[in-house]
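Lab meeting minutes (informal)
Scribe: AK
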Amino acid sequence: MSRSTTVARRLFDRLEPIHAVTYFAPEARSALDGLGFRGFWSGYFAARSAPLGPASPEVVTAVFYNFAAHRVAKALPAAWEIAAPDTVLAARESAAVAALSRYGLADEVDTAAQLLGAAAGDAALGGRVLFAANRALPWPEKPLARLWHATTLLREHRGDGHVAALQALGISGRESNVLHAAAGRVPAEMIKRSRDYDDALWQEQVDRLAGRGLLDGAGELTTAGRDLKAEIEDTTDRLALAAFDVLSDSDLGTLFRTLTPLTRLVVDGGDVPSATPMGLDRADLDNDDL
C-alpha cells in the first residue's frame, strides 16, 4: 500500500498526547503516589516497564534506549517491592481514563478506539519488544480505556521502530538525545534535565557526533547531520506507517476526523506540556483531514 510517510508523523502527533496523560496528568501522579512510589521517575519506570513484568534495569535500559543506566537502576528493581506490575498496570489505566474523562472526551471515542485497535491488533510484532509486551495485555472493555490502550500500543510500536532506525544508522541512545536537540525538535536544557546530563556528559556526546562530522564546533547540525536526522525520522515514519496498512483509505480518513478533535481536547486540558522529549508538533492539529 502506497502512502506518504508524513501520514505516520501526523498520526503520531495525534496519538501521543492521548497516551501521554499517563505521564503528565495529575490523576496519574496521584495514582502512583498512592501505591507508594516517591518521585516522578520511580513511578515512570515502573508504569512504562510494567508490561514487561518485573524486568531488570538492564532490560529496561536496553528497551527504553535513551536513558542513563544509573537513572533506571535507581527505580528498578526496587519498584517491584512497592507494587507488582499488574497492580501498577491497573493504576496506570484507571488514571489515564480518569484524566481523559475530565477533558470531556466522549464524541467519536468508540469509532477512534475501534480503528486504532484494528491497527494495533494487526501490526507485526517482530523486533518490537515494548509493543509486543503491551499487546499481550488484556484489551479493556470501556471505550475510553480502549482508546488509551490503543494509542499506547501504537506509540510504543513507533518507539520500537525508532530504536531500530537509530541502531541501524549507528546512533546510540545517549547520542540520539543530543542529535534531537541539535535538530531543534526539543529544547536542549529540557532533554539534559530529563535524561540526566551534566555539561560534561552532554559535551562528550557532542564531541562524539562532531567527530563523525554530524555536528560542527558550535554543536549545530552539519549538512551530514541534517541528512542523517532526516533519514532517522523518515525511517521511523516508514516503519510506523506499516501498522495502518489494515485500514482502508476511507477508514484512515475517518480516523483522522474522529481522532483530531479528541486530541485537541487533551491538549486544551493543559496537562501535557507543549515541549516534551518526544518533540510533538501541534501546528497541524487544526487540520483533521488527510
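Next up, CB showed the second protein from the same session:
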Amino acid sequence: MSGPPDVDYRATSARPAWGSLPDALKHALEVALGTEIASVGSSVRSGFTGGFAAPAELADGRRVFIKASDDTIHSYGAYQREAEVVPQLPAEAHAPAIVTTARTDNWFAVVSEWVPGRMPGAPWTAEDFAVVTARCEALAEAMTPSPIAGLDTFLMDLESGESALLVPKQILAGDRELPQRLQPWVWRILPELSDLVELAPEALQGTAATHSDLRPDNLLIDTRGECWTVDWNWLALGPRWMDWVGLLPMAQHHGIDTGAAIRSSRLTADVPAEHLDCFVALIAAYMLKNPDKPPPPGCTPAIREHQRLYAWTFLDWLATRRGWTA
C-alpha cells in the first residue's frame, strides 16, 4: 500500500431514519419538548455508530438536534452520558446546550440546540486550524482544574480492557499480529514505540477535564466562523494540552506546520517533547488494536479504516519528529 486509506468523516455512519423509531419514543419526545415535532431532517452521516442523529423543526418554531438509541448498542450509554455532562461544561466549551431528554423502556433520546455549521479538517486549512486551536486553548484554560467531579484519568481508560500500553510489546513478542497496510518501516520502530508508551504515567499526569475524543467530526464551525465542540461522552482527566495535540497528526497530514504550532501555542510551549510524543505513540498503539478484524457490535466498518488512517498519520507524525524513516 502506497498510502493511508481515504476516510470521509462526513460519511462514516449508518443511522436509522426517523420513521423507524418507535412511536412511543416520538410521543415521549413531544411531551418533553412541550410541542409537536413538525419535521425531521436526514440523519447525519458522521460518526461510527448506529444511533439516530438528525436535525428537527418543532411546531413552535424552534430548531433542535435529536439523538436517540435503543439499549442494544453503545450509543445508548453515550447519549445518556452526554446529557449528564454537557450542562456541567463551562461556556468556553461552546457545546450545544441540552434542551431535554426522553426515554421509553429501552430507548433514550437527548435533544440539544441546533447549530448550523460544517466539520473542519476535511481537509484542514490554516484558517480552520487557527479557529480550532483558539477554542482548544480557551477550553483548556476553563477545564483546568476539572470543573466536573468523579472523572477517571485518560490513562485508566486506555488501560481498561485490552491495554493500548501493551500493544507494541505484544506485536514484538508475536502475541498480536502487526496490522496490514501500514508503512513498511513500522516493524523496525516498534521497540522505540514500546519505550515511548511506557512514559505514560508521567506524561499524562494532569488535572484538566479533557474531551478525550476530539476529532474533526466532533467539532463544528458555524456560519459566523466560531468553533463548537460536540459528543462529550468520553471525558477524562489528563494534561491540558491533550485534546489539541490529538488533532495535530491529521493536521500535519493535510500540510499544517504542526511543529511551528507546538512552539507558538501556550498549551505546549513548555511541555517536554517526550511527553507529546508519548501521547501520540499511545494513540497510535491504540489504533493498532484489531483494525483487521470486523467492527465491534453497533459500529460501522468505517471505524476500522479510521483506525488504520489514524495509526498511519500518528506514526508519520512521530517519524517526522524522531527521524524514523531516515
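CB comment: The beta strands are 37-40, 52-58, 63-70, 98-103, 107-113, 117-118, 208-210, 219-222, 227-229, 236-238.
No objections, moving on.
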